Automatic annotation (TrEMBL):
Domain of life (superkingdom): Bacteria
UniProt protein name: Chitin-binding protein
GO biological process: one example: photosynthesis
Signal peptide start and end residues: none
PANTHER family: LIGHT-INDEPENDENT PROTOCHLOROPHYLLIDE REDUCTASE SUBUNIT N
Organism: Skermanella stibiiresistens SB22
Pathway(s) where this gene product acts: Porphyrin-containing compound metabolism; bacteriochlorophyll biosynthesis
């Protein structure tokens, strides 16, 4: 069942991929390569991808999560999940070289799953194979699919197969949707907690600020439509309601496995999102067309919301040159909103891959002279910082650090941009507020730079770019 030598996480990615294939995971590795294409950079620098799957599981009610991987990886992942406020225990099945190569680890996982699968406590138990157990072929597919009514979901989420933590969210969401779709095909399933919607609904793909689905629901109402569940869901039965929606909106465009499940259920997919004036107009048109809503209904929905969005954008203009990068999957949407607010956006980098669901956003941005970089690496983002010398840099932690060294005001994308509404009227005002507050810091940064001597600070950033490029 196993190789006689355990692959180590110090091996190269190619070696680990090869080991996983030799251990019987060819199909999984090839599916990941198709779902989450690499390039131009083979893997953006970000946290352990498995964090995405772990976070999705930890946020669900009545769901237990077990990690199978090296102790150092598990330590890092549990530390990060508690740092981000997970109030759940993360299960761990430890191993050593012997239990890995003899198959004892799989037996230990199986035993742990049986102990944990209590239907009074859980709807589902998720087991995540990290790099080493995946490369060793620990066969989670051989676990029972269900124990006393508790679903057992085993997934492989290796760093050498899933490039970003964003896409790892899709690995678990897709596996859960596949499971729920099979259940729904076999017979009646649990109804939503709040009862079934009387109006046809749109499932929303991608984690978003809690007020956004509410705003989307208000925008859909004149067309006789409702907002469905957000996927990844917060509880198991929402998966059925999501799959029952005739249309899924790929608000975040990287949910490839989840979209495959919606399409297998016969659902239509609509890309982009109701962001800013133009984005909202196009999105309402696309949703209306997907539901065959009469023109008058679509026009009524647009007339209700578009003038208000225009007004909000005009009341809160953003003036300044901005570069933006992140790994959430919403970077292009944020850039659109900034451009519509009047900002001079020069560069958008996203760690996520190019998919057809963000093509409209990409076209719109490029038509306005914005450089769009998919699978952006730190080197791409730093080079943009150096080339465009923005008045504000929005990005990941290392970008924010470099920007500050260059006396450029900076905002951390995940904490400060993702944590506020983006859609419709609420999005138009909220983003401008935080961006303008940061832009107003320019004079303070100039003062600090003059005080501390500009020379070394600038050379530090340039040196960092040179060092990374040489790696
Ligand atoms: S599971 Fe893989 S990618 Fe994640 S921390 Fe461990 S070695 Fe790195």
């Amino acid at each position: 069942m196993y190789d006689d030598t355990a692959p180590s996480c110090h091996g190269g990615k190619a070696e680990l991929r090869q080991a996983a294939k030799a251990a019987g995971l060819t199909e999984t590795i090839e599916r990941y390569a198709a779902d989450y294409p690499m390039g131009p950079h083979d893997q953006p620098q970000s946290m352990c991808p498995a964090f995405g799957s772990l976070r999705v599981g930890l946020r669900m009610r009545r769901t237990a999560t077990i990690l199978s991987g090296s102790a150092c990886c598990v330590y890092g992942l549990t530390f990060t999940s508690h740092f981000y406020g997970a109030r759940r225990t993360v299960g761990y099945v430890p191993f050593n070289s012997e239990s890995l190569v003899t198959g004892k680890l799989f037996e230990d996982i199986r035993e742990a799953v049986f102990k944990l699968a209590d239907p009074a406590l859980y709807d589902a138990v998720v087991i995540i194979n990290l790099c080493v157990p995946t490369a060793s072929g620990v066969p989670l597919r051989l676990l029972p699919k269900e124990i006393d009514g508790v679903r057992i979901i085993g997934i492989d989420v290796p760093g050498f197969g899933v490039p970003t933590h964003a896409e790892a969210k899709d690995v678990l969401a897709g596996a859960m949707l596949a499971y729920a779709r099979r259940e729904a095909e076999q017979g009646p399933v649990q109804a939503p907690r709040a009862g079934r919607s009387e109006r046809p609904a749109v499932a929303l793909l991608g984690e978003m600020f809690p007020a956004d689905p509410v705003g989307i629901a208000m925008m859909l109402e004149p067309m006789g439509l409702a907002a469905g569940p957000v996927v990844p869901t917060r509880e198991w039965r929402e998966l059925y309601s999501a799959l029952a929606c005739p249309v899924a909106a790929a608000i975040h465009p990287f949910y490839t496995a989840s979209i495959r499940e919606f399409e297998a259920a016969g659902r239509a997919i609509v890309g982009s999102a109701p962001v800013g004036h133009d984005g909202t107009a196009d999105w309402l048109d696309a949703i209306g067309a997907a539901f065959a809503v009469p023109r008058a209904g679509i026009d009524a929905a647009k007339a209700k919301v578009l003038p208000a969005i225009r007004g909000a954008l005009e009341r809160a203009p953003v003036k300044g040159r901005i570069t933006l990068s992140g790994y959430e999957g919403s970077e292009l949407l944020v850039a659109r909103l900034l451009v519509e607010s009047g900002a001079d956006v020069r560069y958008v980098g996203t760690a996520c891959p190019r998919t057809r669901w963000s093509e409209a956003d990409r076209d719109w941005l490029q038509a306005r002279g914005v450089m769009v970089q998919y699978r952006a690496s730190l080197e791409h983002d730093l080079a943009a910082l150096k080339e465009f010398r923005p008045d504000l840099a929005i990005g990941t932690t290392p970008i924010v650090q470099r920007a500050k060294e260059m006396a450029i005001p900076a905002l951390y994308f995940t904490n400060l941009i993702s944590a506020r509404p983006l859609m419709g009227i609420a999005g138009a005002g909220a983003l401008a507020q935080v961006v303008n507050a940061a832009l107003s810091n320019t004079a303070r940064f100039d003062e600090m730079r003059d005080f501390f001597d500009p020379g070394p600070a600038q050379s530090l950033a340039d040196q960092a770019i040179g060092e990374r490029a040489a790696c």
